[in-house]
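Instructor's aside before we start: the two examples that follow are unrelated to each other. I chose them only because their records fit on one page, so don't look for a connection. First example below.
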Amino acid sequence: MLNSGRSRGGSGEWEQPFWQQRGWILSAGFLLVLLVLAVFTLVTDGNEEPAGASADPSPTSSATPDRGGGGGGSDARPAGCRTDDSDQAKPAKAPADFRWKADGTGLVPVSKSAGPLTYDGPVWSCYAHTPMGAVLAAHSITDHLSYPGWREVVERQVVPGEGRDALIAGRSQDEDKPTSGKADAGGYAGFSVLSYDKEEATVMFLLRGPSAGTYGSASVTVRWQDGDWKLAPDTDGTVYSGMAQVSGTSGFVTWEA
Protein backbone atom coordinates (compact mmCIF):
# COMPACT_ATOMS: atom_id res chain seq x y z
CA MET A 1 0.00 0.00 0.00
CA LEU A 2 1.36 3.48 0.66
CA ASN A 3 4.32 4.50 2.80
CA SER A 4 4.46 4.08 6.57
CA GLY A 5 2.91 6.74 8.81
CA ARG A 6 4.41 9.00 11.45
CA SER A 7 2.77 9.77 14.79
CA ARG A 8 1.40 13.23 15.47
CA GLY A 9 3.89 14.33 18.11
CA GLY A 10 4.63 18.04 18.35
CA SER A 11 6.11 18.66 14.92
CA GLY A 12 2.95 20.28 13.57
CA GLU A 13 3.05 18.19 10.38
CA TRP A 14 -0.55 17.05 10.92
CA GLU A 15 -1.61 20.69 10.55
CA GLN A 16 -0.19 20.81 7.02
CA PRO A 17 -2.09 19.87 3.83
CA PHE A 18 -2.03 16.10 3.31
CA TRP A 19 0.26 16.22 0.28
CA GLN A 20 2.97 17.89 2.41
CA GLN A 21 2.74 15.44 5.30
CA ARG A 22 5.46 12.81 5.55
CA GLY A 23 3.12 10.78 7.74
CA TRP A 24 0.55 10.63 4.94
CA ILE A 25 3.15 9.47 2.46
CA LEU A 26 4.40 6.88 4.95
CA SER A 27 1.15 5.31 6.09
CA ALA A 28 -1.12 2.28 5.83
CA GLY A 29 -4.79 2.04 4.76
CA PHE A 30 -5.68 2.65 1.12
CA LEU A 31 -9.25 3.69 1.72
CA LEU A 32 -8.29 6.59 3.99
CA VAL A 33 -5.74 7.79 1.45
CA LEU A 34 -8.24 7.57 -1.35
CA LEU A 35 -10.82 9.44 0.71
CA VAL A 36 -8.32 12.25 1.11
CA LEU A 37 -7.62 12.23 -2.61
CA ALA A 38 -11.32 12.25 -3.40
CA VAL A 39 -12.32 15.19 -1.24
CA PHE A 40 -8.98 17.02 -1.07
CA THR A 41 -9.28 17.67 2.67
CA LEU A 42 -6.71 17.87 5.44
CA VAL A 43 -5.72 14.77 7.34
CA THR A 44 -6.97 15.41 10.86
CA ASP A 45 -7.01 12.00 12.54
CA GLY A 46 -4.33 9.60 13.69
CA ASN A 47 -5.38 6.61 11.61
CA GLU A 48 -2.57 5.03 9.68
CA GLU A 49 -2.75 4.93 5.92
CA PRO A 50 -1.21 2.79 3.17
CA ALA A 51 2.51 2.11 3.16
CA GLY A 52 4.73 1.25 0.23
CA ALA A 53 8.04 -0.25 -1.12
CA SER A 54 9.67 -2.42 -4.10
CA ALA A 55 11.54 -5.77 -3.67
CA ASP A 56 14.65 -7.91 -4.23
CA PRO A 57 15.79 -11.01 -2.34
CA SER A 58 19.51 -10.68 -2.92
CA PRO A 59 21.95 -8.55 -0.89
CA THR A 60 21.99 -4.91 -1.92
CA SER A 61 25.04 -3.05 -3.14
CA SER A 62 25.84 -0.14 -0.85
CA ALA A 63 27.81 1.55 -3.62
CA THR A 64 24.72 2.23 -5.72
CA PRO A 65 23.45 5.83 -5.47
CA ASP A 66 19.86 6.49 -4.48
CA ARG A 67 18.27 7.89 -7.63
CA GLY A 68 20.93 8.76 -10.06
CA GLY A 69 23.89 7.26 -11.83
CA GLY A 70 24.71 3.64 -11.45
CA GLY A 71 24.03 1.06 -14.10
CA GLY A 72 21.24 -0.60 -12.19
CA GLY A 73 23.37 -3.52 -11.07
CA SER A 74 24.12 -6.89 -12.58
CA ASP A 75 21.68 -8.98 -14.58
CA ALA A 76 22.81 -12.07 -12.64
CA ARG A 77 19.72 -13.61 -11.10
CA PRO A 78 19.69 -14.99 -7.55
CA ALA A 79 20.07 -18.75 -7.29
CA GLY A 80 16.94 -20.58 -8.42
CA CYS A 81 15.36 -17.48 -9.99
CA ARG A 82 14.56 -17.88 -13.68
CA THR A 83 11.96 -15.90 -15.60
CA ASP A 84 10.90 -15.39 -19.22
CA ASP A 85 12.08 -11.85 -19.98
CA SER A 86 11.23 -11.81 -23.69
CA ASP A 87 8.18 -9.52 -23.56
CA GLN A 88 9.58 -6.00 -23.30
CA ALA A 89 6.41 -4.22 -24.42
CA LYS A 90 4.42 -2.09 -21.99
CA PRO A 91 1.46 -4.27 -20.93
CA ALA A 92 -1.94 -3.61 -22.47
CA LYS A 93 -3.71 -6.05 -20.12
CA ALA A 94 -3.14 -7.93 -16.88
CA PRO A 95 -1.34 -11.29 -17.16
CA ALA A 96 -3.60 -14.24 -17.92
CA ASP A 97 -2.26 -15.99 -14.81
CA PHE A 98 -2.73 -12.97 -12.54
CA ARG A 99 -4.34 -13.62 -9.13
CA TRP A 100 -4.69 -11.88 -5.76
CA LYS A 101 -2.50 -13.02 -2.86
CA ALA A 102 -3.08 -11.99 0.74
CA ASP A 103 -0.48 -9.78 2.38
CA GLY A 104 -1.66 -9.12 5.91
CA THR A 105 -5.08 -7.55 5.52
CA GLY A 106 -4.49 -6.52 1.92
CA LEU A 107 -4.50 -8.35 -1.39
CA VAL A 108 -1.64 -7.92 -3.83
CA PRO A 109 -1.55 -8.92 -7.53
CA VAL A 110 0.90 -11.74 -8.34
CA SER A 111 1.66 -13.88 -11.39
CA LYS A 112 3.46 -17.19 -11.91
CA SER A 113 4.92 -15.86 -15.15
CA ALA A 114 5.95 -12.33 -14.13
CA GLY A 115 6.49 -12.78 -10.38
CA PRO A 116 7.02 -12.97 -7.60
CA LEU A 117 8.31 -16.53 -7.88
CA THR A 118 10.01 -16.68 -4.47
CA TYR A 119 8.33 -16.15 -1.09
CA ASP A 120 10.64 -15.74 1.90
CA GLY A 121 8.56 -14.40 4.75
CA PRO A 122 7.74 -10.76 3.96
CA VAL A 123 10.19 -10.70 1.04
CA TRP A 124 8.42 -11.66 -2.18
CA SER A 125 11.01 -11.65 -4.94
CA CYS A 126 12.16 -12.94 -8.34
CA TYR A 127 10.28 -10.80 -10.84
CA ALA A 128 10.53 -10.92 -14.61
CA HIS A 129 12.95 -8.38 -16.08
CA THR A 130 10.05 -6.88 -18.03
CA PRO A 131 7.56 -4.01 -17.67
CA MET A 132 5.02 -6.42 -16.15
CA GLY A 133 7.60 -7.66 -13.68
CA ALA A 134 8.25 -4.06 -12.65
CA VAL A 135 4.51 -3.48 -12.13
CA LEU A 136 4.15 -6.48 -9.84
CA ALA A 137 7.31 -5.64 -7.89
CA ALA A 138 6.07 -2.08 -7.31
CA HIS A 139 2.80 -3.37 -5.87
CA SER A 140 4.30 -6.06 -3.66
CA ILE A 141 7.25 -4.18 -2.21
CA THR A 142 5.34 -1.02 -1.34
CA ASP A 143 2.50 -3.01 0.22
CA HIS A 144 4.86 -4.97 2.49
CA LEU A 145 6.24 -1.78 4.05
CA SER A 146 3.11 -1.51 6.21
CA TYR A 147 3.52 -4.80 8.05
CA PRO A 148 5.85 -6.57 10.50
CA GLY A 149 9.02 -7.56 8.68
CA TRP A 150 9.17 -4.24 6.82
CA ARG A 151 12.79 -3.67 7.86
CA GLU A 152 13.92 -6.87 6.12
CA VAL A 153 11.97 -5.79 3.05
CA VAL A 154 13.71 -2.41 3.07
CA GLU A 155 17.16 -3.95 3.53
CA ARG A 156 16.69 -6.43 0.70
CA GLN A 157 14.30 -4.71 -1.69
CA VAL A 158 14.99 -0.97 -1.56
CA VAL A 159 17.88 0.66 -3.43
CA PRO A 160 20.52 1.59 -0.84
CA GLY A 161 21.46 5.20 -0.29
CA GLU A 162 20.15 8.41 1.23
CA GLY A 163 16.56 7.67 0.26
CA ARG A 164 16.55 4.27 1.93
CA ASP A 165 18.08 5.72 5.08
CA ALA A 166 15.37 8.40 5.21
CA LEU A 167 12.66 5.80 4.61
CA ILE A 168 13.94 3.70 7.51
CA ALA A 169 14.11 6.73 9.80
CA GLY A 170 10.51 7.69 9.07
CA ARG A 171 9.06 4.18 9.11
CA SER A 172 10.78 3.37 12.42
CA GLN A 173 8.53 5.89 14.16
CA ASP A 174 5.35 4.14 13.04
CA GLU A 175 3.44 1.14 14.31
CA ASP A 176 2.98 -1.91 12.11
CA LYS A 177 -0.34 -2.44 10.43
CA PRO A 178 -2.22 -5.45 11.92
CA THR A 179 -1.85 -8.66 9.93
CA SER A 180 -5.08 -10.27 11.17
CA GLY A 181 -8.48 -9.63 9.71
CA LYS A 182 -10.27 -10.11 6.43
CA ALA A 183 -8.10 -9.46 3.39
CA ASP A 184 -9.45 -6.88 0.97
CA ALA A 185 -8.31 -6.01 -2.56
CA GLY A 186 -9.24 -2.48 -1.55
CA GLY A 187 -7.51 0.20 -3.51
CA TYR A 188 -5.77 -1.57 -6.38
CA ALA A 189 -7.90 -0.97 -9.46
CA GLY A 190 -5.29 -0.83 -12.22
CA PHE A 191 -1.93 0.48 -13.36
CA SER A 192 -0.01 2.26 -16.09
CA VAL A 193 3.68 1.99 -16.97
CA LEU A 194 4.74 5.62 -17.33
CA SER A 195 8.33 4.85 -18.34
CA TYR A 196 10.45 1.75 -18.74
CA ASP A 197 13.88 0.58 -19.72
CA LYS A 198 15.84 -2.40 -18.46
CA GLU A 199 17.43 -0.30 -15.72
CA GLU A 200 14.43 1.60 -14.28
CA ALA A 201 10.64 1.80 -14.48
CA THR A 202 7.99 4.15 -13.15
CA VAL A 203 4.59 2.61 -12.46
CA MET A 204 1.39 4.52 -11.70
CA PHE A 205 -1.20 2.83 -9.49
CA LEU A 206 -4.91 3.40 -10.09
CA LEU A 207 -6.60 3.32 -6.67
CA ARG A 208 -10.30 2.98 -5.95
CA GLY A 209 -11.96 5.85 -4.11
CA PRO A 210 -14.43 5.58 -1.24
CA SER A 211 -17.45 5.75 -3.56
CA ALA A 212 -18.24 4.16 -6.90
CA GLY A 213 -16.53 5.80 -9.85
CA THR A 214 -13.94 7.74 -7.83
CA TYR A 215 -10.25 7.03 -8.19
CA GLY A 216 -6.85 8.30 -7.17
CA SER A 217 -3.39 7.76 -8.65
CA ALA A 218 0.16 7.55 -7.30
CA SER A 219 3.46 6.69 -8.98
CA VAL A 220 6.32 4.49 -7.78
CA THR A 221 9.80 4.00 -9.27
CA VAL A 222 11.68 0.70 -9.23
CA ARG A 223 15.23 -0.03 -10.38
CA TRP A 224 16.84 -3.23 -11.63
CA GLN A 225 19.66 -4.16 -9.27
CA ASP A 226 21.36 -7.42 -8.29
CA GLY A 227 19.12 -9.41 -10.59
CA ASP A 228 15.71 -8.13 -9.48
CA TRP A 229 13.49 -5.04 -9.22
CA LYS A 230 13.95 -2.83 -6.15
CA LEU A 231 12.10 0.20 -4.87
CA ALA A 232 13.87 3.51 -5.57
CA PRO A 233 12.60 6.21 -3.18
CA ASP A 234 13.48 9.90 -3.42
CA THR A 235 16.35 11.19 -1.30
CA ASP A 236 13.92 12.26 1.45
CA GLY A 237 12.48 8.73 1.67
CA THR A 238 9.33 9.55 -0.31
CA VAL A 239 8.01 6.49 -2.14
CA TYR A 240 4.96 7.95 -3.92
CA SER A 241 4.76 10.89 -6.33
CA GLY A 242 2.14 12.39 -8.63
CA MET A 243 -0.73 11.73 -6.22
CA ALA A 244 -3.96 13.01 -7.71
CA GLN A 245 -7.66 12.40 -8.13
CA VAL A 246 -8.61 10.92 -11.52
CA SER A 247 -12.01 10.74 -13.16
CA GLY A 248 -11.96 7.12 -14.33
CA THR A 249 -10.00 4.15 -15.62
CA SER A 250 -9.17 5.57 -19.07
CA GLY A 251 -5.45 5.24 -19.79
CA PHE A 252 -4.97 2.48 -17.21
CA VAL A 253 -4.79 -1.30 -17.45
CA THR A 254 -7.41 -2.59 -15.02
CA TRP A 255 -7.03 -5.68 -12.87
CA GLU A 256 -9.61 -8.30 -13.69
CA ALA A 257 -11.68 -9.57 -10.76
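Example two begins here.
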Amino acid sequence: MAAKAPAAGSSSLDRLPLAGKIGVGLLFLTLVGALFFVFVYEDLSNDLAAAKQREGTLRGELRAAEAVKEAYQKDRDEKIRSEARAEQTKKILPDDPETPAFLASLQQTATIAGVNLTSWTPVDEVPQEFFAKVPMKLTLTGRYHQIAKFFHGVGQIDRIINMEDIQMKLSLKNGTVRPDQPVEPEVTVECLGTAFRALKLDGKDGAKRRGTGK
Protein backbone atom coordinates (compact mmCIF):
# COMPACT_ATOMS: atom_id res chain seq x y z
CA MET A 1 0.00 0.00 0.00
CA ALA A 2 1.40 3.37 -0.96
CA ALA A 3 2.36 5.93 1.77
CA LYS A 4 -0.08 8.71 2.45
CA ALA A 5 1.06 11.99 0.93
CA PRO A 6 1.18 15.10 3.15
CA ALA A 7 -1.93 17.18 3.05
CA ALA A 8 -1.79 20.09 0.75
CA GLY A 9 -1.04 23.45 2.38
CA SER A 10 0.55 21.93 5.52
CA SER A 11 3.59 23.83 6.93
CA SER A 12 7.11 22.53 7.26
CA LEU A 13 6.74 22.72 11.06
CA ASP A 14 3.85 20.34 10.91
CA ARG A 15 5.97 17.91 8.94
CA LEU A 16 8.74 17.94 11.59
CA PRO A 17 8.92 15.09 14.04
CA LEU A 18 8.21 15.72 17.71
CA ALA A 19 11.87 16.08 18.61
CA GLY A 20 12.31 18.67 15.91
CA LYS A 21 9.31 20.61 17.18
CA ILE A 22 10.72 20.60 20.70
CA GLY A 23 14.07 21.83 19.37
CA VAL A 24 12.42 24.64 17.49
CA GLY A 25 10.45 25.60 20.59
CA LEU A 26 13.62 25.73 22.70
CA LEU A 27 15.35 27.79 20.03
CA PHE A 28 12.42 30.22 20.04
CA LEU A 29 12.49 30.51 23.81
CA THR A 30 16.25 31.12 23.69
CA LEU A 31 15.80 33.88 21.14
CA VAL A 32 13.04 35.48 23.27
CA GLY A 33 15.26 35.29 26.36
CA ALA A 34 18.16 36.84 24.47
CA LEU A 35 15.96 39.63 23.18
CA PHE A 36 14.61 40.22 26.73
CA PHE A 37 18.14 40.39 28.09
CA VAL A 38 19.28 42.77 25.36
CA PHE A 39 16.30 45.13 25.31
CA VAL A 40 14.81 44.86 28.83
CA TYR A 41 17.15 43.43 31.45
CA GLU A 42 20.21 45.32 30.26
CA ASP A 43 18.26 48.61 30.30
CA LEU A 44 16.95 47.85 33.77
CA SER A 45 20.46 46.99 34.95
CA ASN A 46 21.81 50.26 33.57
CA ASP A 47 18.96 52.19 35.20
CA LEU A 48 19.65 50.44 38.52
CA ALA A 49 23.35 51.26 38.34
CA ALA A 50 22.54 54.89 37.51
CA ALA A 51 20.05 54.99 40.40
CA LYS A 52 22.65 53.62 42.82
CA GLN A 53 25.18 56.17 41.61
CA ARG A 54 22.59 58.92 42.03
CA GLU A 55 21.79 57.61 45.50
CA GLY A 56 25.47 57.80 46.45
CA THR A 57 25.65 61.37 45.11
CA LEU A 58 22.53 62.38 47.02
CA ARG A 59 23.86 60.81 50.23
CA GLY A 60 27.09 62.78 49.81
CA GLU A 61 25.11 65.97 49.23
CA LEU A 62 22.99 65.18 52.29
CA ARG A 63 26.08 64.71 54.48
CA ALA A 64 27.52 67.97 53.14
CA ALA A 65 24.23 69.76 53.81
CA GLU A 66 24.06 68.36 57.35
CA ALA A 67 27.65 69.49 57.97
CA VAL A 68 26.77 72.98 56.69
CA LYS A 69 23.66 73.00 58.88
CA GLU A 70 25.65 71.94 61.93
CA ALA A 71 28.27 74.63 61.27
CA TYR A 72 25.52 77.22 60.77
CA GLN A 73 23.85 76.17 64.04
CA LYS A 74 27.17 76.47 65.89
CA ASP A 75 27.80 79.91 64.38
CA ARG A 76 24.25 80.98 65.24
CA ASP A 77 24.57 79.78 68.83
CA GLU A 78 27.95 81.50 69.18
CA LYS A 79 26.48 84.70 67.74
CA ILE A 80 23.63 84.58 70.27
CA ARG A 81 26.11 84.01 73.11
CA SER A 82 28.34 86.82 71.82
CA GLU A 83 25.39 89.19 71.58
CA ALA A 84 24.33 88.26 75.12
CA ARG A 85 27.89 88.85 76.40
CA ALA A 86 28.06 92.15 74.54
CA GLU A 87 24.73 93.23 75.99
CA GLN A 88 25.86 92.29 79.50
CA THR A 89 29.18 94.09 78.98
CA LYS A 90 27.33 97.17 77.75
CA LYS A 91 25.29 97.19 80.95
CA ILE A 92 28.47 96.99 83.04
CA LEU A 93 30.57 99.33 80.91
CA PRO A 94 28.50 101.26 78.33
CA ASP A 95 30.18 103.22 75.56
CA ASP A 96 28.13 106.36 76.30
CA PRO A 97 27.94 108.35 79.56
CA GLU A 98 24.21 107.60 79.94
CA THR A 99 24.06 110.18 82.75
CA PRO A 100 20.23 110.08 83.07
CA ALA A 101 20.31 106.28 83.46
CA PHE A 102 23.21 106.59 85.92
CA LEU A 103 21.28 109.08 88.05
CA ALA A 104 18.06 107.05 87.79
CA SER A 105 19.88 103.97 89.14
CA LEU A 106 21.19 105.97 92.13
CA GLN A 107 17.77 107.48 92.84
CA GLN A 108 16.08 104.08 92.67
CA THR A 109 18.68 102.58 95.02
CA ALA A 110 18.28 105.51 97.42
CA THR A 111 14.50 105.09 97.44
CA ILE A 112 14.78 101.38 98.20
CA ALA A 113 17.25 102.07 101.02
CA GLY A 114 15.10 104.86 102.48
CA VAL A 115 17.81 107.45 101.82
CA ASN A 116 17.04 110.98 100.66
CA LEU A 117 19.18 111.98 97.66
CA THR A 118 19.14 115.74 98.18
CA SER A 119 21.51 116.91 95.44
CA TRP A 120 23.53 115.67 92.49
CA THR A 121 25.96 117.48 90.25
CA PRO A 122 27.60 115.89 87.17
CA VAL A 123 31.37 116.41 86.91
CA ASP A 124 33.51 116.44 83.76
CA GLU A 125 34.67 113.07 82.50
CA VAL A 126 38.19 111.90 83.25
CA PRO A 127 39.60 109.99 80.22
CA GLN A 128 41.86 107.00 80.87
CA GLU A 129 43.61 104.65 78.44
CA PHE A 130 40.61 102.53 77.45
CA PHE A 131 37.77 103.99 79.51
CA ALA A 132 36.56 107.26 80.99
CA LYS A 133 35.36 108.06 84.49
CA VAL A 134 31.91 109.64 84.71
CA PRO A 135 31.78 111.32 88.15
CA MET A 136 28.81 112.86 89.93
CA LYS A 137 28.80 114.70 93.27
CA LEU A 138 26.08 113.44 95.58
CA THR A 139 24.54 114.53 98.86
CA LEU A 140 22.54 112.00 100.87
CA THR A 141 20.72 112.02 104.19
CA GLY A 142 19.52 109.08 106.19
CA ARG A 143 20.12 106.82 109.17
CA TYR A 144 23.32 104.82 109.51
CA HIS A 145 21.77 101.53 108.43
CA GLN A 146 19.98 103.25 105.54
CA ILE A 147 23.24 104.75 104.26
CA ALA A 148 24.92 101.36 104.57
CA LYS A 149 22.02 99.76 102.69
CA PHE A 150 22.35 102.39 99.97
CA PHE A 151 26.07 101.72 99.48
CA HIS A 152 25.38 97.98 99.40
CA GLY A 153 22.63 98.53 96.82
CA VAL A 154 24.96 100.57 94.61
CA GLY A 155 27.30 97.58 94.57
CA GLN A 156 24.46 95.41 93.19
CA ILE A 157 23.76 97.66 90.19
CA ASP A 158 24.76 96.12 86.86
CA ARG A 159 26.83 99.14 85.87
CA ILE A 160 30.18 99.59 87.63
CA ILE A 161 29.84 102.46 90.11
CA ASN A 162 32.43 103.45 92.71
CA MET A 163 31.61 105.61 95.75
CA GLU A 164 34.62 107.83 96.52
CA ASP A 165 35.60 110.81 98.70
CA ILE A 166 32.93 109.92 101.26
CA GLN A 167 32.41 112.54 103.98
CA MET A 168 29.86 112.04 106.75
CA LYS A 169 28.34 114.62 109.07
CA LEU A 170 26.31 113.54 112.06
CA SER A 171 23.19 115.51 112.94
CA LEU A 172 20.49 114.93 115.59
CA LYS A 173 16.87 114.56 114.75
CA ASN A 174 15.67 116.99 117.48
CA GLY A 175 18.87 118.98 117.86
CA THR A 176 19.63 117.84 121.47
CA VAL A 177 20.46 114.64 123.27
CA ARG A 178 18.56 113.68 126.45
CA PRO A 179 19.45 110.56 128.46
CA ASP A 180 15.79 109.74 129.01
CA GLN A 181 14.89 110.26 125.37
CA PRO A 182 17.42 108.73 122.99
CA VAL A 183 17.55 110.44 119.63
CA GLU A 184 18.16 108.45 116.49
CA PRO A 185 21.06 110.13 114.70
CA GLU A 186 20.80 111.18 111.08
CA VAL A 187 23.78 111.24 108.75
CA THR A 188 24.47 113.64 105.91
CA VAL A 189 26.85 112.15 103.36
CA GLU A 190 28.71 113.97 100.65
CA CYS A 191 30.49 111.72 98.16
CA LEU A 192 31.56 111.27 94.59
CA GLY A 193 29.72 108.56 92.68
CA THR A 194 31.86 107.47 89.75
CA ALA A 195 30.59 105.39 86.86
CA PHE A 196 32.67 104.28 83.89
CA ARG A 197 32.22 104.02 80.16
CA ALA A 198 34.26 102.39 77.41
CA LEU A 199 36.09 104.70 75.02
CA LYS A 200 35.38 104.22 71.33
CA LEU A 201 38.40 103.64 69.14
CA ASP A 202 37.41 106.27 66.58
CA GLY A 203 35.21 109.31 66.26
CA LYS A 204 34.86 111.87 69.06
CA ASP A 205 36.47 109.67 71.72
CA GLY A 206 39.47 109.13 69.44
CA ALA A 207 39.83 112.88 69.04
CA LYS A 208 39.66 113.34 72.81
CA ARG A 209 42.37 110.73 73.38
CA ARG A 210 44.62 112.30 70.77
CA GLY A 211 44.07 115.70 72.37
CA THR A 212 45.04 114.40 75.81
CA GLY A 213 47.98 112.44 74.51
CA LYS A 214 46.41 109.12 75.52
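Residues 210-214 have pLDDT under 50 and may be disordered.
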